[in-house]
Amino acid sequence: MHIPDGYLGPQTCLAAFGIMAPVWAWASRKVRNTLRLRQVPLMALGAAFTFVVMMFNVPIPGGTTGHAVGAVLVSVLLGPWAAVVAVTVALAVQALIFGDGGITVFAANCLNMAVIMPFAGWWTFRLIAAGSPASSQRRWVAAALGGYVGLNAGALSAALMFGIQPALAHDAAGRALYCPFALDVALPAMVLEHLLVFGVVEALVTGLVVAYLSRSEPALLEGGMPAAAPRGRMPLWKKLALGLGILVLLAPLGLVLPAKLGASEAWGEWGGERVRELAGYIPAGMRKVEALWRAPMPDYAPMGSEEATLPVLSFWYVLSGLLGAAMVTGLLIAARRLITRREADGPAP
Amino acid sequence: MGPLPDWMVIGRSELPLPLQQRRGAWSLARKGLGEIIGKAAILLGPGVNDSHGWLTRLDARAKVLGILGLLLTTTWVRGILTLLFSLCAAWALALIGGVNVRRMALALLAVPLFTLALAAPAALNLVTEGTPLWILCHLGGGTWGPWHLPEYLAITDRGVFVAMRFTLRSLACVSFGALLAASGSPQDLLRGLRGLGVPAAFVMVAGMMARYLSLLLESAEQIHLAKLSRSIGGVGVRLEQGWAAAGIGELYRRSRRLAEEVTEAMVSRGYTGETRTMAAQRWCGRDILFVSACAALVTFLLGID
User: Fold this and answer.
1) CA-based Rg of chain A, rounded to a whole angstrom?
2) Which of A101, A221, B110, B270 satisfies CB 3.0 to 4.6 Å to A95 for a cystine?
3) Which DSSP symbol is given to A91?
4) Chain B (83-102) residues lying within 8 Å, Cβ to Cβ, of chain A
5) Residues 6+ apart with CB under 8 A from A216
6) Which candidate in A13, A23, A53, A55 is best for mutational testing of the B interface (most B CBs within 10 A)?
7) What CATH number labels A10-227?
8) CB neighbours of A149 closer than 8 A, spacing ≥ 6?
9) How far is Cα A169 from Cα A167, in angstroms, rounded to an integer?
10) Is residue B8 less than 8 Å (CB to CB) from chain A?
11) Which helix (H) or strand (E) holds A66?
12) Residues of B with CB below 8 A from A103's CB?
């Protein structure tokens, strides 16, 4: 995941520095407020720990080994903002002294591995483990899932950075100036290997280390999981609900903007009729599969709403968003209750 | 003295894997750690100051400014010849400047090989279309999953150009990065960054990290060695994973303990939470000359591009 120099164009590098500058400033402020006097040695040792974790080979079935990035582990142990600082410093030392990861692409590497990865992992961890005791089984399951989600989110971001290079920077003859692989190659190449192999290693390392610490020294796990929100501050679930609500209300933009810009439907997301228009016929297999299932709300509106006006379609869009969000939330709550009940029934292995 | 137990008799072991394979993961991990400790000793150690090359004696700010300028220019330029010139300039600077070339090669790590492996597919018509130079095999067209296959698999003229440019750019950029790393001690480099406006807290944390990294790496090696010396046979992947996790957990415990001890030592010496770094040196004639030469080289590279 360490992108070397020369792989990304100046536009991407500058954009990454633009995103990272306020993140670094905010992370320093947050860490200074929470760790105070201890911050420098703790951050330095946290960064050194992050560096060394990457050296630990973990055996995986099939007789081979892999190593983890460790950013989610650090965010679970020290908190996500501390992880931003620790992983940034580790990446800086790797780039400047060990030549691992580029200098011009430093901010892009930080965005992937010091921000997206620890935060995606930490939010997954919080969502599942919030309120559980330090010795709980739920904690290490959550940490493992966090590791998996975090690494794959980081890999996806790196793949997007690679994949947009041919479109962003090419010469007059159309030849790529930087990474030559477009999204159709970069995305499957990066995402599949992380989904199938490296994500599993990251999940193993993160989950097993949290399990080990929760049994041997649970106090060390308190750094990443703050106690209940202080009085007067909005609890986590309210923040999530608020964010989700805003996103649902913004959903009709997906209808309004294409209508205003005169854009057609997304490439490849064609129904049978559109395929007939484009290709002159509907492939037999497609016709057969199309008849298998009729969605109750095709295109996020009840059947027969194809000719409805934009405001009406927008209303159905918002309603579909609310319905979908409620169903996913319900499933997550049910899964969480199931894990909690299992935990209450028997001790952790 | 009684007979050997069955599991110690060669050829009668009931363990599922041969000894070499059973201890493979730990031996591999220890070997990897040994290599990185060796590299850290060379890259982080004081050896660089033994070099009497003029580049190592320059003010850190001048080095950072000049070499970063060349690195950014290399990222910007497009021509193959310009990139080749840039690559040659990086190594020529290292040789003329008396930089320890071994340090520089170590800092390069496996990037050139990785880049070559990554750039090779870009030469194929699957990635970059163009006039075929060499047809490798016939694919017969059709589709493979969501991908459309061409009639044949070939190396194209445009593909070779793209792969060459990508490899050259990456090599030149990485060489300048390695030159920066090899032309001074880490503390010197960080002092240069501080002198150019990087926040003091960041420089202090990075400096401390570089200082304690060797210690943690040695701790990690001790943990591996202790486990390896106490294991004579395979225990299965699952238990080995548990050991690896316990090793990382133990390392974290040691890091926390060390951080507390370092904090106490700093507080006892008057540390109040205010970050301080060593003052940068004063600029002198040779520093200004070096930055000017780098600026001239940047102008030349942009000019010939």
Assistant:
1) 23
2) A101
3) H
4) none
5) B249, B253
6) A55
7) 1.10.1760.20
8) A120, A121, A124
9) 6
10) no
11) strand A64-66
12) 68, 71, 177, 180
- B166 CB neighbours in chain A (<8 A) are 6, 176, 178-180
B177 to A179: CB separation less than 8 angstroms, yes or no: no
Tokens 């501080």 correspond to: B194
How many Å from the N-terminal Cα to the C-terminal Cα in chain B? Answer: 81
- Residue B121 corresponds to which tokens in the numbers above? 């597919």
> Whose structure tokens read 């050139």?
B112
Token pair of B21 as six digits: 């394979």
Coil, strand, or helix at residue B271?
coil
Q: What's the whole-number mean pLDDT along residues B175-190?
A: 83
User: Which residues of chain A neighbour B165 with C-beta distances below 8 Å?
Assistant: 175, 177
3-state helix, strand, coil in chain B (%, to 5): 70, 5, 25
Chain B: give the shortest CA distance to residue A210, in Å: 8
Which residues touch B301 (CB under 8 Å, ≥6 apart)?
Answer: B70, B73, B74, B77, B82, B85, B86, B89
Determine the Cα–Cα distance for residues A165 and A8; give it in Å rounded to an integer. Answer: 7
Instruction: List Cα–Cα distances, B158 to A138, A168, A206, B115, in angstroms.
Output: 54, 18, 44, 18
Q: Write out residues 148-187 of B within 8 Å (CB-CB) of A.
A: 158, 161-163, 165-166, 169-174, 176-178, 180-181, 186
Q: Under a CB-based contact definition with an 8 Å cutoff, are residues A75 and A46 in contact? A: no
Split at pLDDT 50, 70, 90, the class of A152 is: very high
> pLDDT tens digit string along B191-236?
888 877 787 777 888 888 887 887 888 888 888 778 777 766 666 6
CB B109 within 8 A of CB B195: no
CB interface of A with B, residues 233-292, below 8 Å: none
Contacting residues of B for A202, CB less than 8 Å apart:
none
Q: Is the pLDDT of residue B71 over 60?
A: yes
**What average pLDDT does range B60-79 have in this prediction?**
90
Q: How far is CA B286 from the centre of its chain?
A: 30
A310 pLDDT band, cuts 50/70/90, is confident
Q: pTM of this prediction? A: 0.72
Q: How confident is the model at residue A238 (pLDDT cuts 50, 70, 90)?
A: low
Give B 201-240 residues with CB within 8 A of chain A. Answer: 201-202, 204-213, 215-217, 219-220, 237, 240
Residue A304's φ and ψ, nearest 5 degrees, are 90, 5
Tokens of A156: 């996806």
Q: Which residues in chain A are closer than 8 Å to B245, comparing Cβ atoms?
A: 58, 204-205, 208-209, 211-212
Residue in B closest to A87 by C-alpha:
B206
Q: Looking at the complex, does the CB of residue A85 fall below 8 Å from at least one CB of chain B?
A: yes
Complete DSSP assignment for B230-260: T--S---HHHHHHHHHHHHHHHHHHHHHHHH
The ranges assigned to domains in chain B are 24-304
Residues of A in Cβ contact (< 8 Å) with B109: 98-100
Phi, psi of B138 (to 5 degrees): -95, 130
Which H helix or E strand runs over A213?
helix A199-216
DSSP state of B46: G
